Amino acid sequence: MMRLLYTGSTSACIERINALPYYAPEPFTVTVNGAAYGRFDSNVFSVFGLQPDTDYSVAIDAAGVHESIAFRTAPESCAIDVRSFGAAGDGVTDDTAAIRTAIQFLPDGGRLIFPKGVYCTRPLALKSHITIELQKDAVLLGSADRSRYPVLPGFVPDQNGTELPYGTFEGVVRPMYASLLTAIHAEDIAIVGEGALDGNAQNSDFWTNFENFEPARPRLVYFCECKNVTMHGFTAKNSPSWNFHPFHCENVSFYQLFIQAPKDSPNTDAIDPEACDGVQIIGCRFSVGDDCIAIKSGKIDLAKRYQWPADHHTVRNCLMEFGHGAVTLGSETAMGIRNLTVEQCRFHATDRGLRIKTRRGRGRDCNITGVAFENIRMDAVKTPVVINMWYNCCDPDRFSEYVWSRESLPVDDRTPHLGTFRFSDMVCTDAQAAACYIDGLPEMPIDEVTFERVRIAFSPDAAPAIPAMQNFAEERCRLGLYFDNVRSVKIRDVQITGADGDAVITRNCAQTEVVGLIKEP
After folding, report:
1. In CATH terms, is domain 330-521 a member of 2.160.20?
2. What is the CATH number of domain 76-162+176-254?
3. Where are the beta strands (DSSP E) in 159-276?
4. Residue 450 CB: number of other CB atoms within 10 A?
5. By C-alpha distance, which of 112, 191, 199, 197 is closest to 149?
6. Is 0.85 topped by the overall pTM?
7. pLDDT of 404-425, one tens digit each?
8. Separation between Cα atoms, residue 197 and residue 182, nearest integer Å
9. CATH tag for 2-72 (out of 2.60.40.10, 1.25.40.10, 2.40.50.140, 3.40.30.10)
10. Based on the number of CB atoms within 10 Å of its own CB, is 223 exposed (0-12), middle (13-18) or buried (19 or more)?
11. Which residue numbers are catalytic?
C-alpha cells in the first residue's frame, strides 16, 4: 500500500498507492520509528532529519488504516556544514567563494549542508557523487546582477575535435549564462531538503529585458549530459527562465518539489527535460508563468547531429496550478518523444491540460507517440487537450506560408509525425474554449486518438479563448471534441456537458468510432 520512491542519507520520499489523483483519501498522521512526525494530505510525502546508514520504519494512520514501510538510509562518506568554509548565510555577504570551495573539496559520497539562513551566491558548478542538502529555512539566493553570471559556450571541442554541446536553450545549442546550479558530464548528484533555491529574477533584468540578450538566460538548475540525478523536497522559485532543464540526461528524478513563479513571469517553465531517457516527476506541485512540465527533444539542427529522443518519462501524483500548459510536449520535438505516461494528476486553472506543440519544419525524426493520460482531474482548464501541428511561435519562419498553409504539402525531411494518444478516466469541470482541439497536418494526419471514460463539463460562464497557438486562429467557446486530420478517432464512454453544437466534430478523419457518447445540455 506504500511505495518507497527515494532514500538518501537523511531523507526519504514515500508514495501511498491508491486511485485518487494527488490528494490522499483523507489526511493522515506519520510516525517514524514510533515517534510522531507530522500530518499530511497528499499521496506523496517525505520525511527529513534522518541519520545515515540507519534502519527506519515509517507508519501512517488514517481512519482506522495502519500501514508501514521499512527501509535503511544510504551511507555517506562525510557531512560538512558550508559555514565551516566561511559561508555567512546572513543574506548580505557574498558566499560564492566559500560555497565553491566547499563543493570542490567535498569527498565522493559526501553531503554539503546548508543550515537555516540566506546564502547569497553567483552561479555554482556541481560535481559527481555529492549531495547538497538545503535544510529547513535555508535559502540559496542567486545574484540579481547579470554581469556576475559567466557565459557557457554552445559547443566545446573534445580532444579529437568533436563538438560537444554545453549551452542550450529552446532546442538550439547556443551560448548561455551559467545557471544558479550547473552540472555537465557528471553523475550521482542529489539536491534535497526542506529549504529553497531562489533565482531572485524579480530583482534583476532577466524578466524585463530578456529579448535583447545575446547569451540565453540562465536556468535555475541545468544538467547537461548527466545521469542518476535526484531532486527531492525543496522549493524552487523566481528562476530567470526555466526552473529545471536536464539536457540529454539519463535517470533524472523529481520528488515532491514545489516550483513557483508569478503568473506573468516570462518562460518560467517548471521542469523541461530535453532529449532525456528515464525521467520521473512524482508528487510535485507547480504554479508558474509558463508550462508546468514541457518535454522536449530539440530543433531540427540537433536532430541532424544526434538521435536523442525523449523516452520513458512518467508524471504521477502531481498538482499543476496555473501555467500555460499542465503537461506540454514541445514545441522543440525534432528528435522525437515516446513512452510518456501521465497519471493521477490534478490540473487547476492552467490554459491547457495536455498541450502538444509541433509544426512543419521539426523534421522527419519528430515522431511523437505512445502518450497516455490516465486518471486525471482538471478544474477550470480552458481547453483540456490540445494537439497542435501548426504551432507558430519561437522560430523566424513562424508566420511563413509553409507553416500556415492548409494545403497538403509534400512529405519530406521537414515533416513531423504524431502517432498514438490515449486519454482515459478523466474528469474535467469548468472548461471554456473547447473540450479538445486536435489539429493534424493534411499531408501527415495524426495516427490515432482515443478518449475512453472521459467526462468534460463546460463552465456556464465560459469565455471565448484561442485553444491552440496557430496563425489565423479563431477564438472558441464551448466547442466539443474537435478533430481535424486524424486517421483514427475512437470515442468510448464519453460525456460532454454544456457544449454549443455537436459533442464531436471531425474533419478529414478517415475512421471515427463513437460508442457510448452522451451529450448533456
Report:
1. yes
2. 2.160.20.10
3. 163-165, 168-169, 172-173, 176-177, 181-184, 187-193, 196-198, 221-224, 227-232, 235-237, 244-247, 250-255, 258-260
4. 17
5. 199
6. yes
7. 999 999 999 999 999 999 999 9
8. 13
9. 2.60.40.10
10. buried
11. 290, 324
